[in-house]
Amino acid sequence: MSILDELEWRGLLAQSTDRDALRRDLEAPEPLTLYCGFDPTASSLHAGHLIPLLTLRRFQEAGARPIVLAGGATGQIGDPRDVGERSLHSVDTVAEWAQRIRGQLERFVAFDDSPTGALVANNLDWTGGQGVLEFLRDVGKHFSVNVMLARETVKRRLAADGLSFTEFSYLLLQSQDYLELFRRYGCRLQIGGSDQWGNIVGGTDLIRRVEGATTHAMTLPLVTDSEGRKFGKSTGGGNIWLDPELTSPYAWYQYFVNVGDADVGRYLRMFTFLSREEIAALDEDTAERPHLRAGQKRLASELTTLVHGHHQTDQVIAASGALFGRGELGELAADTLTAAMAEVPTTDVALGEGTIVDLLVATGLVDSKGAARRAVKEGGAYVNNTKVADEEWQPSAADVLAGGWLVVRRGKRNLAGVRVKG
RNA sequence: GGCAGGUUGCCCGAGUGGCCAAAGGGAGCGGACUGUAAAUCCGUCGGCUUAGCCUACGAAGGUUCGAAUCCUUCACCUGCCA
Protein backbone atom coordinates (compact mmCIF):
# COMPACT_ATOMS: atom_id res chain seq x y z
CA MET A 1 0.00 0.00 0.00
CA SER A 2 1.40 3.37 -0.91
CA ILE A 3 1.94 6.02 1.69
CA LEU A 4 -0.84 8.15 0.25
CA ASP A 5 -3.32 5.29 0.48
CA GLU A 6 -2.10 4.63 3.97
CA LEU A 7 -2.63 8.24 4.99
CA GLU A 8 -6.05 8.28 3.42
CA TRP A 9 -7.06 5.15 5.28
CA ARG A 10 -5.89 6.70 8.52
CA GLY A 11 -7.99 9.77 7.88
CA LEU A 12 -4.92 11.96 7.62
CA LEU A 13 -5.50 13.55 4.24
CA ALA A 14 -7.38 16.82 4.18
CA GLN A 15 -6.28 18.64 1.04
CA SER A 16 -3.51 18.23 -1.43
CA THR A 17 -2.31 19.58 -4.73
CA ASP A 18 -2.21 17.23 -7.73
CA ARG A 19 -2.30 13.89 -6.00
CA ASP A 20 -1.21 11.83 -9.00
CA ALA A 21 1.84 14.01 -9.53
CA LEU A 22 2.71 13.64 -5.89
CA ARG A 23 2.29 9.90 -6.11
CA ARG A 24 4.69 9.78 -9.03
CA ASP A 25 7.26 11.80 -7.13
CA LEU A 26 6.93 9.52 -4.15
CA GLU A 27 7.53 6.51 -6.32
CA ALA A 28 10.64 7.98 -7.93
CA PRO A 29 13.95 6.24 -7.19
CA GLU A 30 15.45 8.98 -5.06
CA PRO A 31 13.61 9.85 -1.86
CA LEU A 32 11.22 12.77 -1.87
CA THR A 33 12.15 15.45 0.65
CA LEU A 34 9.29 16.96 2.62
CA TYR A 35 8.97 19.31 5.54
CA CYS A 36 6.69 20.58 8.22
CA GLY A 37 7.24 23.68 10.34
CA PHE A 38 6.52 24.10 14.04
CA ASP A 39 6.34 27.55 15.55
CA PRO A 40 7.47 28.02 19.13
CA THR A 41 4.33 29.53 20.59
CA ALA A 42 5.02 27.93 23.99
CA SER A 43 7.87 26.17 25.72
CA SER A 44 6.61 22.77 24.64
CA LEU A 45 4.79 21.03 21.84
CA HIS A 46 1.34 19.69 22.68
CA ALA A 47 -0.60 16.61 21.70
CA GLY A 48 -2.02 18.21 18.58
CA HIS A 49 1.48 18.60 17.15
CA LEU A 50 1.82 14.84 17.09
CA ILE A 51 -0.31 14.52 13.98
CA PRO A 52 2.10 16.25 11.60
CA LEU A 53 5.13 14.88 13.45
CA LEU A 54 3.97 11.32 13.19
CA THR A 55 3.01 11.90 9.59
CA LEU A 56 6.58 12.97 8.86
CA ARG A 57 7.65 9.71 10.42
CA ARG A 58 5.19 7.73 8.32
CA PHE A 59 6.65 9.37 5.23
CA GLN A 60 10.14 8.55 6.39
CA GLU A 61 9.26 4.91 6.94
CA ALA A 62 7.79 4.91 3.46
CA GLY A 63 11.09 6.05 1.99
CA ALA A 64 10.94 9.84 2.06
CA ARG A 65 13.32 12.27 3.74
CA PRO A 66 11.73 14.50 6.39
CA ILE A 67 12.83 17.93 7.49
CA VAL A 68 11.52 19.23 10.79
CA LEU A 69 11.60 22.98 10.85
CA ALA A 70 11.64 24.95 14.06
CA GLY A 71 10.03 28.32 13.45
CA GLY A 72 12.50 30.54 15.24
CA ALA A 73 11.64 33.35 12.83
CA THR A 74 7.96 32.77 12.13
CA GLY A 75 7.43 32.24 15.85
CA GLN A 76 8.51 35.84 16.38
CA ILE A 77 5.75 37.04 14.08
CA GLY A 78 2.74 34.80 14.65
CA ASP A 79 0.35 33.30 12.15
CA PRO A 80 -2.89 35.32 12.05
CA ARG A 81 -5.68 33.55 13.86
CA ASP A 82 -9.35 34.28 14.19
CA VAL A 83 -9.37 35.35 17.81
CA GLY A 84 -7.36 38.46 17.17
CA GLU A 85 -3.91 39.97 17.15
CA ARG A 86 -1.32 38.09 19.14
CA SER A 87 0.89 39.85 21.63
CA LEU A 88 4.50 39.42 20.72
CA HIS A 89 6.84 37.45 22.90
CA SER A 90 10.35 38.69 23.40
CA VAL A 91 13.00 37.55 20.98
CA ASP A 92 14.83 35.81 23.81
CA THR A 93 11.74 33.93 24.87
CA VAL A 94 11.02 32.73 21.36
CA ALA A 95 14.63 31.66 20.93
CA GLU A 96 14.49 29.65 24.12
CA TRP A 97 11.22 28.03 23.16
CA ALA A 98 12.53 27.23 19.70
CA GLN A 99 15.49 25.51 21.27
CA ARG A 100 13.30 23.41 23.55
CA ILE A 101 10.85 22.51 20.85
CA ARG A 102 13.66 21.52 18.56
CA GLY A 103 14.73 18.94 21.13
CA GLN A 104 11.23 17.50 21.17
CA LEU A 105 10.92 17.48 17.41
CA GLU A 106 14.06 15.45 17.04
CA ARG A 107 12.59 12.52 18.91
CA PHE A 108 9.99 11.59 16.33
CA VAL A 109 11.99 11.05 13.20
CA ALA A 110 15.14 9.02 12.63
CA PHE A 111 18.48 10.71 12.08
CA ASP A 112 21.01 8.59 10.21
CA ASP A 113 23.33 8.83 7.26
CA SER A 114 20.96 7.12 4.88
CA PRO A 115 19.27 9.02 2.04
CA THR A 116 16.14 9.20 4.15
CA GLY A 117 17.86 10.45 7.30
CA ALA A 118 15.97 13.37 8.81
CA LEU A 119 17.16 16.98 8.89
CA VAL A 120 16.43 19.72 11.37
CA ALA A 121 16.34 23.35 10.39
CA ASN A 122 15.45 26.68 11.94
CA ASN A 123 14.07 29.37 9.68
CA LEU A 124 15.85 32.03 11.71
CA ASP A 125 18.99 30.81 9.95
CA TRP A 126 17.96 32.39 6.66
CA THR A 127 15.74 35.23 7.84
CA GLY A 128 17.77 36.46 10.79
CA GLY A 129 20.32 38.31 8.70
CA GLN A 130 18.03 39.21 5.85
CA GLY A 131 17.53 42.88 5.03
CA VAL A 132 14.13 44.45 4.57
CA LEU A 133 14.82 45.69 1.07
CA GLU A 134 16.05 42.31 0.01
CA PHE A 135 12.94 40.69 1.47
CA LEU A 136 10.55 43.15 -0.13
CA ARG A 137 12.20 42.93 -3.53
CA ASP A 138 12.88 39.20 -3.67
CA VAL A 139 9.85 37.85 -1.88
CA GLY A 140 7.24 40.57 -1.45
CA LYS A 141 7.13 41.40 -5.13
CA HIS A 142 5.71 37.98 -5.91
CA PHE A 143 2.69 38.33 -3.69
CA SER A 144 -0.55 39.99 -4.64
CA VAL A 145 -2.24 41.83 -1.81
CA ASN A 146 -5.54 41.18 -3.56
CA VAL A 147 -5.02 37.47 -3.15
CA MET A 148 -3.79 37.81 0.40
CA LEU A 149 -6.89 39.79 1.33
CA ALA A 150 -9.09 37.02 0.02
CA ARG A 151 -7.81 34.51 2.59
CA GLU A 152 -10.45 33.38 5.05
CA THR A 153 -8.57 34.25 8.19
CA VAL A 154 -7.64 37.67 6.85
CA LYS A 155 -11.22 38.37 5.82
CA ARG A 156 -12.49 37.42 9.25
CA ARG A 157 -9.88 39.55 10.94
CA LEU A 158 -10.66 42.53 8.74
CA ALA A 159 -14.32 42.14 9.58
CA ALA A 160 -13.49 42.03 13.27
CA ASP A 161 -10.65 43.94 14.89
CA GLY A 162 -8.31 44.07 11.96
CA LEU A 163 -4.76 42.76 11.90
CA SER A 164 -1.29 44.22 11.93
CA PHE A 165 1.01 44.34 8.96
CA THR A 166 3.27 42.02 10.94
CA GLU A 167 0.77 39.20 11.03
CA PHE A 168 -0.38 39.96 7.52
CA SER A 169 3.20 39.32 6.40
CA TYR A 170 3.38 35.87 7.95
CA LEU A 171 2.38 34.22 4.70
CA LEU A 172 5.46 35.61 2.99
CA LEU A 173 7.80 34.27 5.62
CA GLN A 174 6.41 30.77 5.48
CA SER A 175 6.39 30.85 1.70
CA GLN A 176 10.01 31.90 1.72
CA ASP A 177 10.82 28.98 4.02
CA TYR A 178 9.50 26.53 1.48
CA LEU A 179 11.49 28.22 -1.26
CA GLU A 180 14.62 28.12 0.85
CA LEU A 181 14.21 24.45 1.69
CA PHE A 182 13.55 23.73 -1.97
CA ARG A 183 16.79 25.44 -2.87
CA ARG A 184 18.88 23.94 -0.10
CA TYR A 185 17.55 20.42 0.00
CA GLY A 186 15.30 20.01 -3.00
CA CYS A 187 12.29 19.87 -0.71
CA ARG A 188 9.21 19.19 -2.84
CA LEU A 189 6.41 18.70 -0.34
CA GLN A 190 5.18 20.65 2.63
CA ILE A 191 2.63 19.27 5.04
CA GLY A 192 0.75 20.95 7.86
CA GLY A 193 -2.61 21.29 9.55
CA SER A 194 -5.55 22.17 7.34
CA ASP A 195 -5.38 25.74 8.61
CA GLN A 196 -1.98 25.92 6.93
CA TRP A 197 -3.27 25.35 3.41
CA GLY A 198 -2.99 28.98 2.38
CA ASN A 199 0.50 29.32 3.78
CA ILE A 200 1.65 26.15 2.08
CA VAL A 201 0.31 26.91 -1.37
CA GLY A 202 1.79 30.37 -0.92
CA GLY A 203 5.11 28.54 -0.95
CA THR A 204 4.35 26.40 -3.98
CA ASP A 205 3.28 29.52 -5.88
CA LEU A 206 6.44 31.34 -4.90
CA ILE A 207 8.63 28.43 -5.98
CA ARG A 208 6.82 28.24 -9.31
CA ARG A 209 7.31 31.95 -9.94
CA VAL A 210 10.92 32.14 -8.84
CA GLU A 211 12.25 28.74 -9.80
CA GLY A 212 9.72 27.60 -12.35
CA ALA A 213 9.38 24.33 -10.47
CA THR A 214 6.32 22.42 -9.38
CA THR A 215 6.15 21.37 -5.75
CA HIS A 216 3.46 19.82 -3.62
CA ALA A 217 1.21 20.84 -0.77
CA MET A 218 -0.72 18.60 1.54
CA THR A 219 -2.70 19.26 4.68
CA LEU A 220 -3.81 17.06 7.51
CA PRO A 221 -7.18 17.40 9.16
CA LEU A 222 -7.53 19.48 12.26
CA VAL A 223 -8.25 16.87 14.89
CA THR A 224 -11.47 17.39 16.75
CA ASP A 225 -13.47 15.04 18.91
CA SER A 226 -16.96 13.88 18.00
CA GLU A 227 -18.30 17.09 19.50
CA GLY A 228 -16.16 19.20 17.22
CA ARG A 229 -13.94 20.35 20.03
CA LYS A 230 -10.34 20.89 19.22
CA PHE A 231 -8.29 17.89 20.14
CA GLY A 232 -5.69 18.00 22.88
CA LYS A 233 -7.46 20.19 25.36
CA SER A 234 -7.39 18.49 28.71
CA THR A 235 -10.50 18.27 30.83
CA GLY A 236 -9.02 21.20 32.72
CA GLY A 237 -9.26 23.24 29.55
CA GLY A 238 -5.54 23.59 29.00
CA ASN A 239 -3.35 21.90 26.46
CA ILE A 240 -1.78 18.58 27.18
CA TRP A 241 1.92 18.99 26.68
CA LEU A 242 4.71 16.71 25.65
CA ASP A 243 6.96 18.18 28.31
CA PRO A 244 6.59 15.96 31.41
CA GLU A 245 7.13 19.00 33.60
CA LEU A 246 3.96 20.54 32.20
CA THR A 247 1.86 17.41 31.79
CA SER A 248 2.95 14.42 33.85
CA PRO A 249 3.18 11.08 32.05
CA TYR A 250 0.38 9.90 34.32
CA ALA A 251 -1.87 12.79 33.28
CA TRP A 252 -0.92 12.22 29.66
CA TYR A 253 -1.90 8.56 29.90
CA GLN A 254 -5.12 9.40 31.68
CA TYR A 255 -6.11 11.86 28.97
CA PHE A 256 -6.05 9.16 26.34
CA VAL A 257 -7.62 6.50 28.54
CA ASN A 258 -10.58 8.86 28.81
CA VAL A 259 -11.10 9.42 25.10
CA GLY A 260 -14.73 8.85 24.12
CA ASP A 261 -15.86 5.69 22.34
CA ALA A 262 -16.89 7.75 19.35
CA ASP A 263 -13.34 9.02 18.88
CA VAL A 264 -11.05 6.19 19.88
CA GLY A 265 -11.03 4.35 16.56
CA ARG A 266 -10.19 7.49 14.64
CA TYR A 267 -7.45 8.39 17.09
CA LEU A 268 -5.92 4.92 16.88
CA ARG A 269 -5.63 5.36 13.13
CA MET A 270 -4.19 8.84 13.32
CA PHE A 271 -1.90 8.57 16.32
CA THR A 272 -0.56 5.03 16.30
CA PHE A 273 1.39 2.82 13.97
CA LEU A 274 -0.83 -0.19 14.60
CA SER A 275 -1.81 -2.26 11.58
CA ARG A 276 -5.22 -2.36 10.00
CA GLU A 277 -5.83 -5.76 11.56
CA GLU A 278 -4.94 -4.63 15.06
CA ILE A 279 -7.11 -1.55 14.77
CA ALA A 280 -10.02 -3.54 13.36
CA ALA A 281 -9.82 -5.85 16.37
CA LEU A 282 -9.82 -2.88 18.74
CA ASP A 283 -12.76 -1.32 16.90
CA GLU A 284 -14.64 -4.54 17.46
CA ASP A 285 -13.78 -4.47 21.14
CA THR A 286 -15.04 -0.93 21.44
CA ALA A 287 -18.30 -1.83 19.74
CA GLU A 288 -18.97 -5.01 21.66
CA ARG A 289 -17.26 -4.58 25.00
CA PRO A 290 -17.02 -0.83 25.40
CA HIS A 291 -16.71 -0.94 29.19
CA LEU A 292 -13.36 -2.70 28.90
CA ARG A 293 -11.92 0.28 26.97
CA ALA A 294 -9.45 -1.87 25.16
CA GLY A 295 -9.05 0.75 22.45
CA GLN A 296 -8.53 3.60 24.88
CA LYS A 297 -5.99 1.65 26.89
CA ARG A 298 -4.05 0.69 23.81
CA LEU A 299 -4.14 4.24 22.50
CA ALA A 300 -2.94 5.56 25.84
CA SER A 301 -0.13 3.07 26.20
CA GLU A 302 1.06 3.53 22.61
CA LEU A 303 1.16 7.29 22.95
CA THR A 304 2.74 7.27 26.37
CA THR A 305 5.43 4.95 25.10
CA LEU A 306 5.98 7.14 22.08
CA VAL A 307 6.42 10.29 24.12
CA HIS A 308 7.73 9.11 27.48
CA GLY A 309 9.19 5.67 26.83
CA HIS A 310 8.46 2.11 27.89
CA HIS A 311 9.61 2.50 31.45
CA GLN A 312 7.35 5.43 32.23
CA THR A 313 4.47 3.73 30.48
CA ASP A 314 4.76 0.62 32.61
CA GLN A 315 4.75 2.78 35.69
CA VAL A 316 1.72 4.85 34.81
CA ILE A 317 -0.23 1.76 33.78
CA ALA A 318 0.59 0.12 37.08
CA ALA A 319 -0.36 3.29 38.94
CA SER A 320 -3.63 3.61 37.05
CA GLY A 321 -4.43 -0.01 37.79
CA ALA A 322 -3.75 0.42 41.47
CA LEU A 323 -5.65 3.66 41.85
CA PHE A 324 -8.63 2.81 39.65
CA GLY A 325 -8.64 -0.92 40.22
CA ARG A 326 -11.38 -2.82 41.98
CA GLY A 327 -9.26 -3.68 44.99
CA GLU A 328 -9.34 -1.82 48.26
CA LEU A 329 -6.59 0.72 48.64
CA GLY A 330 -5.97 -0.68 52.10
CA GLU A 331 -4.97 -3.99 50.55
CA LEU A 332 -2.21 -2.52 48.42
CA ALA A 333 1.35 -3.27 49.47
CA ALA A 334 3.50 -0.35 50.52
CA ASP A 335 5.78 -0.49 47.49
CA THR A 336 2.86 -0.74 45.05
CA LEU A 337 1.17 2.25 46.60
CA THR A 338 4.37 4.25 46.81
CA ALA A 339 5.08 3.58 43.15
CA ALA A 340 1.58 4.68 42.21
CA MET A 341 1.88 7.83 44.29
CA ALA A 342 5.03 8.73 42.41
CA GLU A 343 2.82 9.40 39.38
CA VAL A 344 0.48 11.91 41.02
CA PRO A 345 1.05 15.14 42.94
CA THR A 346 2.01 14.56 46.55
CA THR A 347 2.60 16.53 49.69
CA ASP A 348 3.70 15.90 53.29
CA VAL A 349 1.41 16.49 56.25
CA ALA A 350 1.49 15.61 59.94
CA LEU A 351 -1.53 14.09 61.63
CA GLY A 352 -3.62 16.63 63.48
CA GLU A 353 -2.25 19.47 61.39
CA GLY A 354 -5.08 20.01 58.98
CA THR A 355 -8.59 19.26 57.90
CA ILE A 356 -9.79 17.80 54.61
CA VAL A 357 -9.93 21.36 53.31
CA ASP A 358 -6.25 21.85 54.04
CA LEU A 359 -5.38 18.51 52.44
CA LEU A 360 -7.19 19.40 49.23
CA VAL A 361 -5.37 22.72 49.04
CA ALA A 362 -1.97 21.32 50.02
CA THR A 363 -2.12 18.66 47.31
CA GLY A 364 -3.07 21.19 44.68
CA LEU A 365 -6.32 19.39 43.88
CA VAL A 366 -8.12 22.70 44.33
CA ASP A 367 -6.93 26.28 44.02
CA SER A 368 -8.30 27.78 47.21
CA LYS A 369 -9.92 26.95 50.50
CA GLY A 370 -13.20 28.19 49.17
CA ALA A 371 -12.97 25.73 46.32
CA ALA A 372 -12.03 23.00 48.78
CA ARG A 373 -15.06 23.70 50.94
CA ARG A 374 -17.19 23.69 47.85
CA ALA A 375 -15.77 20.34 46.81
CA VAL A 376 -16.62 18.87 50.21
CA LYS A 377 -20.11 20.40 50.16
CA GLU A 378 -20.70 19.04 46.67
CA GLY A 379 -19.70 15.56 47.75
CA GLY A 380 -16.63 15.53 45.56
CA ALA A 381 -13.96 15.01 48.22
CA TYR A 382 -12.63 11.59 49.08
CA VAL A 383 -9.89 10.13 51.22
CA ASN A 384 -8.93 6.55 50.49
CA ASN A 385 -12.00 6.24 48.25
CA THR A 386 -14.34 7.19 51.08
CA LYS A 387 -16.38 10.33 50.66
CA VAL A 388 -15.63 13.04 53.21
CA ALA A 389 -18.67 15.20 53.88
CA ASP A 390 -17.44 17.18 56.88
CA GLU A 391 -15.21 20.19 56.31
CA GLU A 392 -13.66 19.70 59.74
CA TRP A 393 -12.73 16.07 59.13
CA GLN A 394 -9.12 15.27 59.99
CA PRO A 395 -7.19 12.13 59.19
CA SER A 396 -6.34 9.80 62.07
CA ALA A 397 -3.76 7.07 62.42
CA ALA A 398 -6.36 4.50 61.36
CA ASP A 399 -6.68 6.16 57.96
CA VAL A 400 -3.03 5.87 57.06
CA LEU A 401 -2.37 3.25 54.41
CA ALA A 402 0.70 1.13 53.85
CA GLY A 403 3.79 3.21 53.29
CA GLY A 404 2.34 6.10 55.27
CA TRP A 405 -0.03 7.31 52.54
CA LEU A 406 -3.41 8.92 52.35
CA VAL A 407 -5.00 8.92 48.90
CA VAL A 408 -6.91 12.16 48.42
CA ARG A 409 -9.31 12.42 45.52
CA ARG A 410 -11.40 15.23 44.13
CA GLY A 411 -14.15 14.21 41.78
CA LYS A 412 -13.88 10.98 39.91
CA ARG A 413 -10.32 11.00 38.82
CA ASN A 414 -8.24 13.79 40.27
CA LEU A 415 -5.91 12.05 42.66
CA ALA A 416 -3.10 13.12 44.92
CA GLY A 417 -1.01 11.51 47.61
CA VAL A 418 -0.42 12.75 51.12
CA ARG A 419 2.53 11.31 52.97
CA VAL A 420 1.91 11.35 56.69
CA LYS A 421 4.89 12.57 58.64
CA GLY A 422 5.97 11.32 62.01
C1' G B 1 -2.97 65.56 14.50
C1' G B 2 -8.79 66.00 14.54
C1' C B 3 -13.56 63.63 15.37
C1' A B 4 -16.52 59.41 16.90
C1' G B 5 -16.99 54.82 19.41
C1' G B 6 -14.91 51.33 22.70
C1' U B 7 -11.94 48.85 27.17
C1' U B 8 -16.68 44.50 32.41
C1' G B 9 -15.03 38.21 35.77
C1' C B 10 -11.46 32.21 31.90
C1' C B 11 -14.22 33.75 26.99
C1' C B 12 -18.57 36.25 24.87
C1' G B 13 -21.76 39.77 26.76
C1' A B 14 -25.75 42.80 29.89
C1' G B 15 -25.45 46.60 33.21
C1' U B 16 -25.67 54.45 32.90
C1' G B 17 -25.54 56.53 40.91
C1' G B 18 -27.55 52.47 45.95
C1' C B 19 -31.51 46.24 45.32
C1' C B 20 -23.85 44.70 41.83
C1' A B 21 -19.09 40.05 43.56
C1' A B 22 -22.03 42.34 38.92
C1' A B 23 -27.93 39.42 34.32
C1' G B 24 -27.46 35.82 30.38
C1' G B 25 -24.62 32.32 27.47
C1' G B 26 -20.22 29.32 26.84
C1' A B 27 -16.13 26.87 29.04
C1' G B 28 -14.61 24.79 33.68
C1' C B 29 -15.71 22.19 38.26
C1' G B 30 -18.91 18.71 41.43
C1' G B 31 -23.08 15.23 41.84
C1' A B 32 -26.71 11.57 39.78
C1' C B 33 -26.66 7.83 35.76
C1' U B 34 -22.59 4.77 33.51
C1' G B 35 -17.80 2.01 31.79
C1' U B 36 -12.21 6.57 34.82
C1' A B 37 -16.97 7.02 28.01
C1' A B 38 -20.96 9.93 25.41
C1' A B 39 -25.70 12.13 26.10
C1' U B 40 -28.99 14.02 29.82
C1' C B 41 -30.48 16.22 34.40
C1' C B 42 -29.13 18.89 38.95
C1' G B 43 -25.73 21.95 41.46
C1' U B 44 -21.51 25.19 41.44
C1' C B 45 -18.36 28.84 39.51
C1' G B 46 -13.13 36.00 42.96
C1' G B 47 -10.48 35.47 47.82
C1' C B 48 -10.41 35.14 53.21
C1' U B 49 -9.76 34.16 59.81
C1' U B 50 -17.07 33.35 55.62
C1' A B 51 -23.99 35.93 59.83
C1' G B 52 -18.45 39.61 58.39
C1' C B 53 -14.40 41.41 55.62
C1' C B 54 -11.05 42.18 51.39
C1' U B 55 -10.07 42.58 46.19
C1' A B 56 -12.51 43.47 41.37
C1' C B 57 -15.67 46.31 36.10
C1' G B 58 -8.34 49.51 31.26
C1' A B 59 -4.92 53.10 34.90
C1' A B 60 -4.69 57.24 38.24
C1' G B 61 -7.27 61.04 40.59
C1' G B 62 -11.99 63.55 41.77
C1' U B 63 -17.54 64.43 42.85
C1' U B 64 -20.98 61.89 46.27
C1' C B 65 -23.50 59.45 52.41
C1' G B 66 -22.77 55.90 48.29
C1' A B 67 -19.64 54.85 41.57
C1' A B 68 -18.78 49.42 37.00
C1' U B 69 -22.20 53.54 36.32
C1' C B 70 -20.87 61.00 36.84
C1' C B 71 -16.19 64.36 36.07
C1' U B 72 -10.70 64.95 34.83
C1' U B 73 -6.20 63.10 33.00
C1' C B 74 -3.55 59.01 30.92
C1' A B 75 -2.95 54.25 28.18
C1' C B 76 -4.61 50.98 24.59
C1' C B 77 -8.14 49.31 20.61
C1' U B 78 -11.58 50.32 16.32
C1' G B 79 -13.52 53.49 12.55
C1' C B 80 -13.71 58.08 9.71
C1' C B 81 -10.92 62.40 8.30
C1' A B 82 -5.92 64.90 7.64
Give an overview of the whole structure.
- This protein is an alpha/beta fold and 422 residues long.
- It folds into three domains: 218 residues, Rossmann fold (3-Layer(aba) Sandwich); 77 residues, Tyrosyl-Transfer RNA Synthetase, CATH 1.10.240; 88 residues, RNA-binding S4 domain (Structural Genomics Hypothetical 15.5 Kd Protein In mrcA-pckA Intergenic Region, Chain A).
- It is built from 20 helices and eleven strands.
- The longest helix is centred in the middle third of the chain and has 16 residues.
- It binds one RNA strand of 82 nucleotides through α14, α17 and α20.
Question: What's the SSE blueprint?
Answer:
Layout: H1 3-9, E1 15-16, H2 19-27, E2 33-38, H3 50-61, E3 65-70, H4 74-77, H5 91-105, E4 119-122, H6 124-127, H7 132-138, H8 145-149, H9 152-159, H10 165-168, H11 170-185, E5 189-193, H12 197-211, E6 216-220, H13 249-257, H14 261-271, H15 276-288, H16 294-308, H17 310-324, H18 334-341, E7 346-350, H19 356-362, H20 369-377, E8 381-383, E9 386-387, E10 405-410, E11 414-421
Parallel strand pairs: 2-3, 2-5, 3-4, 5-6, 7-11
Antiparallel strand pairs: 1-6, 8-9, 8-10, 10-11
The chain binds one RNA strand of 82 nucleotides through residues 83, 85, 160-162, 226-227, 235-237, 254, 257-264, 290-293, 296, 320, 323-324, 366, 368-371, 373-375, 377-381, 410-413.
